[in-house]
Write a structure and sequence with these properties.
The protein is mostly helical and 171 residues long. The protein has two domains: 2-58 and 98-166, no CATH class; 59-97, no CATH class. 42% of the residues lie in helices and 5% in strands. The chain has helices spanning 2-10, 23-38, 101-108, 110-114, 120-123, 128-135, 145-161, 163-166; strands at residues 64-65, 70-72, 85-88. Helix 2 packs parallel to helix 7 (145-161). Bound molecules: iron/sulfur cluster. Iron/sulfur cluster (SF4) binds at residues 111-112, 115, 117, 119-120, 123, 125-126, 141, 143-145. Residues 111-112, 115, 117, 119-120, 123, 125-126, 141, 143-145 line the site of iron/sulfur cluster (SF4).
Length: 171
């Protein structure tokens, strides 16, 4: 259920439900979380606070290899988009390393630095595949700060309301 809310959050075609990364989608997420905890379900909050993704690593710890040998640096991108391609494993010089990623993130992070955003270590200017699909470039930030701040506020309320159940949450 929580993954479904996240999908809606990221799905521009369904923006009539919740604008992506909005405070409203944060509300919906915590409302679902509240219900899940009442049922005693185990909930892992990495749905919300996603760790830095494989794409943000200069030397990726994981890559995607397609049946034709093509390598993608993002688990959600399966085509030859040059922003995500790591060459082909059959090539003599496959380029698994994402050498320019530091510069790309740095270039996208002006607002993050000015605002001293506490989420930077996990956000790193946002999901690259989302940016490419919806914003048409990876050279920009996809900011979820308002969304994340709202979720943290609401998690505090939830902790007061259901302290025992809250302990079941995994971060
Ligand atoms: S949440 Fe927004 S301001 Fe914070 S690091 Fe991400 S893109 Fe930058």
């Amino acid at each position: 259920m929580l993954e479904a809310v996240k999908e809606i959050d990221y799905n521009e075609a369904r923006s009539y439900y919740f604008p992506a990364a909005s405070q409203e989608s944060g509300d919906a997420y915590v409302a679902c979380l509240d219900i899940a905890l009442r049922f005693g379900w185990k909930v892992v909050l990495t749905h919300v606070f996603q760790p830095p993704c494989m794409y943000t690593q200069t030397k990726p710890s994981s890559i995607v290899i397609r049946p034709d040998g093509g390598v993608s640096r993002c688990i959600s991108v399966y085509n030859d988009d040059p922003d995500f391609s790591g060459g082909n494993i059959a090539a003599s010089d496959p380029m698994f390393e994402n050498t320019d990623i530091g510069k790309t993130i740095e270039g996208n992070a002006e607002k993050c630095k000015v605002g001293k955003c506490p989420f930077f270590p996990v956000c790193m200017t946002g999901c690259p595949s989302y940016k490419k699909i919806h914003l048409k470039t990876v050279h920009t930030a996809f900011c979820r700060r308002g969304h994340l701040e709202k979720i943290i506020q609401d998690l505090g309320r939830l902790q007061n309301k259901q302290p025992k159940a809250f302990e079941q949450l995994e971060f």
